[in-house]
Amino acid sequence: MQAENDKMTWKVAKIICQIQEIEIEVLVKCPYCELRVARLNLKESLWECDRCNKEGAEEELLRLAQENFFDKHQMAYWETRNNKGVK
């Protein structure tokens, strides 16, 4: 439920910024070079890394971030899933 509320909040914020012609950029960690130098442009729904020059759509950035998170936390995920959080 919280994720849906957050998603709606971002959608509303993006619409307001478009109406008011405000350009917002958020610094995020680049999924390729792992540094917080990628800029996510909320108006255009695009991201670009200042260091490695990779770029793409925000949906791609979300997918890559989710994959990186799962890769780093895979062992904990399976332990929790298989043991129901109990050792």
What does this structure look like?
By secondary structure, the chain is an alpha+beta fold. The protein has one domain. It has 3 helices and 4 strands. It is flat. The chain starts with a helix and ends with a helix.
Concise account of the structure shown:
The protein is α+β, with helices and mostly antiparallel strands and 87 residues long. The chain has three helices and four strands, in the order H-E-E-E-E-H-H. Strands 1-2-3-4 form a four-stranded antiparallel beta sheet.
Helical content class: 40-55%
Distance between the termini: 29 Å
Largest sheet: 4 strands, antiparallel
What is the averaged pLDDT score?
83
Q: What general form does the structure show?
A: flat
**Percentage of residues in strands:** 15-25%
Class from secondary-structure proportions: alpha+beta
Contiguous low-pLDDT stretches (5 residues minimum) are none
Radius of gyration: 16 Å
Helix tally? 3
Number of domains: 1
Number of strands: 4
Instruction: Give the helices and strands as they follow along the chain.
Output: HEEEEHH
Across the major sheet, the strand order is: 1-2-3-4
Topology (elements, then pairings):
Layout: H1 2-19, E1 25-28, E2 38-41, E3 46-49, E4 55-57, H2 58-72, H3 74-83
Antiparallel strand pairs: 1-2, 2-3, 3-4
Descriptors for this entry?
single chain, 87 residues, alpha+beta, four-stranded antiparallel β-sheet, 4 strands, 49% helix, flat
